[in-house]
Amino acid sequence: APSGEYLKTGGFMIRGKKNYLTASQLVMGFGLLFRLDSESAARHLEKRCQAEDGLGGEEANCDNLHDEQNKQKKLVTSELSEQSFNSVNSEEFSYPDNETLDAIQCLTGNPTEDDNILFALPVCAPYAALSNYKFKVKLTPGTTKKGKAIKTAIDLFMQDRTALPGLREFIKVIQEQDVARDFPGKVKVSAPNLHSVRKKR
After folding, report:
1. How far apart are CA 62 and CA 79, in angstroms?
2. Which of 84-88, 93-97, 135-139, 161-165 has the lowest average pLDDT?
3. Range of the domain at 78
4. Phi, psi (deg, nearest 5) at residue 119
5. Are residues 47 and 33 in the same domain?
6. Which residue, of 43, 97, 134, 176, is most buried by count of CB atoms within 10 Å of its CB?
7. Are residues 126 and 194 in the same domain?
8. What average pLDDT does range 104-129 have in this prediction?
9. Is residue 196 part of a domain?
10. pTM exceeds 0.70, yes or no
11. Which residue windows are transmembrane per the record (predicted)?
C-alpha cells in the first residue's frame, strides 16, 4: 500500500480513477444471412459501392457545416489512435486474406428475386447490425428457454408472407442444434408479427 500498510493475504488495492460506463440496453438480434453464388455476389457488391458513393456526397456537405468541431475531434482521436497503435505489437495484428474477404462479400441479409442462393446461415449479433436483414428478431433478457426461442424465431421466418418462395426451403433446412451454439439463453423474442405466429400454434 502507498501509506506503508501491509495488505492481508488475498487483499488488494485499487489505484486510479473510477471509469463509469454509460448504461446500455442488452439488445441482441437473431437473423439469417444467405450465401450467394459469385454472379449474385458481384451484383450486390456493385449496389453497395453505388450506395457508398451516394453517401459520400452527403457526408462532405455535413463536414463543411461543422468543420471546427470535427477538427478538434480528429485531433483527439488521432492522438488516441497513435497511442493505441504504438502499444499494440505489429505481430498481433494481421489483415484478413482475400479468401476470407470474398466469403464475406458473398453473404447478404436481404436477397433479391434474381439471386442464386446456396444456403442460409443463422447469425446472432447486436440488433443494430441486423438493420438491413430481411429475416430478423430482437432478443432481450427474459425467461424463454433457448430451444423455444429458436423455434419461435424460425416459425416467424417461415410464416413471413413477404418472403420469396425459394427462401422458405433454405429456412426449413436450418437445424435447431446449429443455431443453439450461437443463440443466448433466457431471452425474450420480439418481432412485429409475433402474436400471429403464437396464435397459430
Report:
1. 23
2. 84-88
3. 39-87
4. -165, 170
5. no
6. 134
7. yes
8. 87
9. yes
10. no
11. none
Identify the DSSP state of 183.
S
Most distant CA pair in the chain, distance: 74
Residue 143's H or E segment, with its range, is: strand 136-144
pLDDT of residue 62: 41
Residues 81 and 44 in one domain: yes
What is the percentage of the chain residues whose pLDDT exceeds 70? 70
For 30-91, the DSSP string reads: EEEEEEE-HHHHHHHHHHHHHHHHHHHHHHHHHHHHTHHHHHHHHHHHHHHHHHHHHHS-TT
Average pLDDT over residues 151-162: 88
- pLDDT score, position 162: 81
Asked whether residue 135 falls in the same domain as residue 122, the answer is yes
Residue 190: exposure state from Cβ atoms within 10 A (0-12, 13-18, ≥19)? middle
Count CA atoms within 13 Å of residue 17 on its CB side: 3
Do both 159 and 126 map to the same domain? yes
User: In a 3-state reduction of DSSP, which class is residue 187?
Assistant: strand
With respect to residue 99, please indicate whether it lies within any of the assigned structural domains.
Answer: no
126 lies in the same domain as 176: yes
* CB contact set of 198 (below 8 Å; sequence gap of 6+): 152
| 57 shares its domain with 144 | no
Q: How many domains does the chain have?
A: 2
